[in-house]
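Exercise 7. Given the components listed, write out the predicted structure of the assembled complex. Treat all entries as one system.
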Amino acid sequence: MAITEEQLEEILAKYPSKLQKNRKKHIVINNADCGAQPIEANTRTAPGIITNRGCAYAGCKGVVLGPLKDMIHITHGPIGCAFYTWGARRNKAKSDDPTQNFINYCVSTDMQESDIVFGGEKKLAKVIDEVMENFHPKAITVSATCPVGLIGDDINAVAKAAEERHGIPVLAFSCEGYKGVSQSAGHHIANNGLMDRVIGAGDLEQASGKYPINILGEYNIGGDSWEIERILSDIGYQIVSVMTGDGSYEALKNAHVAELNLVQCHRSINYIAEMLEIKYGTPWLKVNFIGVKGTSDSLRNMAQYFGDPALIQRTEEVIAREVARIEPLMGQYKKVCEGKTAFCFVGGSRGHHYQGLFGELGIDTVLAGYEFAHRDDYEGREVIPDIKTDADSKNIPELHVEQDPNRFKLKLSPEKMAELKAKIPLSYYAGMHVDMKEGTIMVDDLNHYETEEFIKLLKPDIFASGIKDKYVVQKMGIPAKQIHSYDYSGPYAGFNGAVNFARDVSMGFASPTWNFIVPPWKEEPLLTGTVNEEGVA
Ligand code: CFM
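Answer.
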């Protein structure tokens, strides 16, 4: 079901006129006749709007750094910031050395009023000492929260002194929550820190196995990267590091030896992908391991990059085997899903990635968007030169990287690179819009008012989003599937993940619950009573 410009105007008409104009720029009805359709993104949410966005600290500590299992990640700030980046994202990790897997810990300086008044640097130094005494990690990160920046604690100086005291890297991240307009700023800050201090710090000059790759922007939510690794190892790839799902400081140090970098989540990690190409000459390939087609296409593109006939053949064998195995299962769920419609609104990648998997189940995505992505995630990387920098984006320092004099190696000749670029998404991401049908709608930073209005208008059969809007949607009688944390399920990536997703979505549709969601007072009065002859109840 499509939406018309008039219907859109009606929804926006409830806003004050300035806000109307603002929000209109963030909403696009896909129309091939219009040519390029610019969308505004990565700008401040209007105050008072109920947005689903997070903060820079969440993007830095919660998203990019947190999954690195052999480091202790210290939150310098009040306890709530630490608590809400502790485990709810379901980024899993396991380790051969359980003494070096700290994924279940939540370490914070727990700033109190007196720390805010008198400064928290001493407390931070003490926490680092305690961490060293109790855990002996290989490295530590310190992430700043809003008050740290406001009171001016110098976390860099504290980290530097701690490095000298303890002889291990202590990385400070100035990712105060208010920096930038969303968690996207925090991704960039974390990318810079990892590139500057961790990647390339190892001694390896060459990978030990065949077809060495890094997987960037894969965070092992609900076990996704374990499923991806299962497939890639079966084909014969050596996975040097995963950034950062079930990842480790130890592996990241030697990420420079890979021959190819895969980029799953472009939004959160394209900075490292680009810097690795400049510094070490390693190209990056956009992949999408969500959905059977997404996974198969990505595997084929990887095989083409290496160009080895044996690898190409093995890739086809694995795809054929896996598809034959899961097809009957998918077919069974497809019967339940066919003909349904979805809203797909997630942070910065999944709003696009899950559309393919929905499509494979016969579900049409009628509305999609990202909380905090940039224009290139909607329109493709070709718009990057046109993106205006504003005060908020200038706030995030760019890390200057150069060719490594010893380790830079062109992995492909310029001719081969040009030839491959014409066939596979090397150093390129086309954005969400190319996959969206005519008349569907893209909404950037969808808010709660618009969520309700678009649901009333388009009546989707399922809403794919997160915890912040899930219950509102369910109370409207629509099944909601969390695509951030996968509720309690997963993995959803790769071949097995596609089956899990199909099962969970089908369960959502098949559940009789939705028929019961009518407020009781609509059907019968909650209080009953009688009036007797004397007028006393
Ligand atoms: Fe990348 Fe992510 Fe996403 Fe993201 Fe996130 Fe996430 Fe996400 Mo939630 S890194 S942009 S900051 S794919 S936590 S694992 S699900 S909003 S769409």
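Discussion: The longest strand covers residues 212-218. The mean pLDDT is 95.
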